[in-house]
Amino acid sequence: AVWQVPAPGGEALPEAFLRDECPVGRVDVACLTAVNAATLDLAARLVRDGGTILLLAGGSEDLALPANLLYYREISVVASYSPSCQSLQEAFRWIVGRKVRLTPLL
Description:
Structural class: alpha/beta
Largest sheet: 3 strands, parallel
Shape: globular
Number of helices: 4
């Protein structure tokens, strides 16, 4: 399942989301399309131990996560700029060859 959480804007959204709205407790992957101190902190609190924070955008500020948080909770931080031409061609072949069911994703 995918949950879209708006970036925090001063309200108590992150704690309320963790407590009331996230039915599984923590998530496997937190995908950040807006990277700043608030969204990175939220992702670190939402992702499960052993989970991944995926950065899909750059940020304009220097950001930090405590090394002990990453180490003891075994959180991976991965960045992805864009797919390679080869990856796009392979994805296209999967879609055309009906190897991927797209209906659940739409």
